[in-house]
Write a structure and sequence with these properties.
Layout (H helix, E strand, L loop, with lengths): L11 E3 L12 E3 L4 E2 L23 H6 L7 E6 L4 E7 L11 H4 L2 E6 L5 E7 L5 E6 L7 E6 L6 E7 L5 E4 L10 E5 L1 H4 L10 H9 L3 E5 L8 H7 L6 E5 L6 H18 L5 E4 L11 H13 L6 E4 L2 H4 L14 H19 L4
Parallel strand pairs: 12-13, 12-14, 14-15, 15-16
Antiparallel strand pairs: 1-11, 2-10, 3-4, 4-9, 4-11, 5-8, 5-10, 6-7, 6-9
Length: 352
């Protein structure tokens, strides 16, 4: 059975229905409202791959699929303030080149008066169990996005609403129910954004108002045949392939065209966008980039739904866009989104 991109779940949460917590808090699980998955049959609500994939894909990818990069809760609430608590699967809250707020924190956005997304605040982790308070929300029918950690796993996610207020999940719109799927490396996963909402995948999703499935796997985006089979199960609207950073020139020769051909067997008309790589000063093409462009030039002669984006604008030429010469900082993530979002809007037929 082909996996669906998102389950349509609507849950009404009231203070009277919540359980546990401190005397003044009424906690309700948000696990069933988590979106951003490409599969409905994951072993936990916070995993990115179906349980059936465990013995079929590389162990590194399977392990990383239990980090919650790209997962979020999209909801409407009339509360102007609430609390969120989350439990992490790992006590490693940060990395040498990436802060705990991005690795293990949560991040809240709300729609502004002009329907644009505005950052509200983030939840800063101090241990494996954390609680954050959020205020200054729109209220009435305030629409919110709560992003989960980029490089840690989540085992529990709960919200406490003020008495008399409610929360309702926002289901996927039928015309936009098929997600954009971005398969790639640590950069796609979100390294090294300072908070989850600043991963380029999240910025792109807000910019073009379209759901994005983040299939970034740190150091492990290598386009194995098994990954092609698994990704082909998703009924996607666009597939973005951004794996060059983790591949050798030999792997580019061996795997990219067969990967595309596997996707084409199930999705002959699916738009596929190939992303080039570069060094941190945007010098292109690399050896791998030249090989990718040659594959694109040849296949695109007969495949009108194959697209290519050069890497020059992904990081810029001033050297300011990375943490350590490789992974984007927040500037680099924003530049990625600036370059990728217009291309996706054109592919999707959206107004520029």
């Amino acid at each position: 059975m082909r996996a669906t991109a998102f389950a349509v779940i609507v849950l009404l949460v009231t203070a009277a229905s919540c359980r546990g917590g401190d005397a003044n808090d009424n906690w309700q699980s948000l696990a069933e409202l988590v979106q951003g998955r490409g599969y409905s049959n994951t072993d936990t609500p916070f995993a990115r791959f179906p349980a059936s994939a465990k013995d079929k894909i590389p162990k590194s990818v399977w392990d990383l699929s239990h980090q919650s990069a790209g997962l979020y809760v999209h909801f409407v609430t009339d509360a102007t303030a609430f609390k969120v608590r989350w439990a992490l699967t790992s006590g490693s809250l940060a990395m040498p080149h990436m802060p705990a707020t991005g690795v293990s924190g949560i991040d809240l956005y709300a729609r502004g008066a002009e329907r644009n997304w505005m950052w509200i605040a983030n939840g800063r982790p101090s241990g494996q169990s954390n609680t954050a308070s959020f205020a200054n929300l729109p209220g009435k029918t305030g629409e919110c996005l709560l992003y989960l950690p980029l490089y840690n796993g989540v085992s529990a996610l709960e919200i406490s609403l003020p008495e008399g207020t409610k929360l309702q999940a926002v289901p996927a719109r039928p015309e936009r129910s098929k997600p954009i799927v971005i398969y790639g490396t640590s950069i796609t996963q979100g390294a090294c954004a300072s908070r989850p909402g600043l991963a380029f995948t999240s910025i792109v999703s807000r910019r073009i108002d379209w759901p994005v499935v983040n299939l970034g796997f740190s150091g492990s985006g290598r386009m194995e045949p098994e990954m092609a089979d698994l990704i082909a199960e998703i009924d996607a609207r666009v597939l973005v392939l951004d794996c060059l950073w983790n591949m050798t020139p030999q792997l580019v020769d061996e795997r990219i065209e067969p990967f595309i051909m596997t996707i084409r067997k199930s999705h002959p008309e699916l738009p596929i966008l190939l992303l080039e790589d570069s060094d941190f000063r945007a010098r292109t093409p690399t050896t791998k980039g030249a090989k990718l462009k040659a594959i694109f030039d040849r296949l695109s002669q007969t495949d009108r739904n194959l697209h290519f984006l050069g890497a020059r604008d992904l990081l810029g030429v001033d050297g300011e866009a990375t943490v350590e010469g490789c992974h984007p900082n927040d500037i680099g993530m924003l530049r990625h989104a600036d370059a990728i979002a217009p291309v996706l809007k054109k592919i999707l037929g959206l107004a520029q």
